[in-house]
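Following up on my earlier thread - several people asked me to post the actual chain instead of describing it. Fair enough. Here it is, all 210 residues.
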Amino acid sequence: MAFYHGVKTSEQATSVIAPVQTTAGLPVVFGTAPVHLTEDPSAVVNKPIICYSWEEAVQQLGYSEDWAHFTLCEAMYAQFKLYGVAPIVFVNVLDPAKHKKSTTTTATLAEKKCVVKAAVLLNTLKVSSAGQAGVANTDYTAAFDDKNQLVISVVKGGKFDTATTLNLTYDELDVENFDYRNVIGGVDSNDKATGFELIDTIYHHFGRRY
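Reply from S.P.:
Thanks for posting it. Predicted structure:
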């Protein structure tokens, strides 16, 4: 009988482990999320959001590996990727209406594209060149790639078809100067709770759903 001497290797697909559903000890995490990556950044401010999966959390809050500035992402990663436990409630206190700054810059096009690394609020983006203002999805497209960078592409036949640079004006999240007193929060004159003051509303929102 012949014997094999040496090392053999093989590859096997790794399945995604389903999160363990808990019935007690519901985690509630307050912090900042990359809301510029969501469909409606203003809709996820000071609002308890319960998530049962990684995909659900990323869709509702966005995800960035910049945990120093977007602190909820670390909890998201630990909960779903490391330990596979669900559900969890996230409360984002980064408000794009308040915690932002305006930027004007000129970007050089390469292969009809330019990349912006800032946390751009897409609904504020304005693009122009040679005095002509562009129309989204007609003269250019703008979307975030898998590295969370904003890629602006020139549409063939549009106003920027022969441009070499684009003038960009936009608001971006001002995470550098975020004041963490926003996490503590409070109650305003209209009885609107923010930050930690939302803790008392968690059961009212979700009850025994978890």
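The chain has four helices and 14 strands. That should answer part of your original question.
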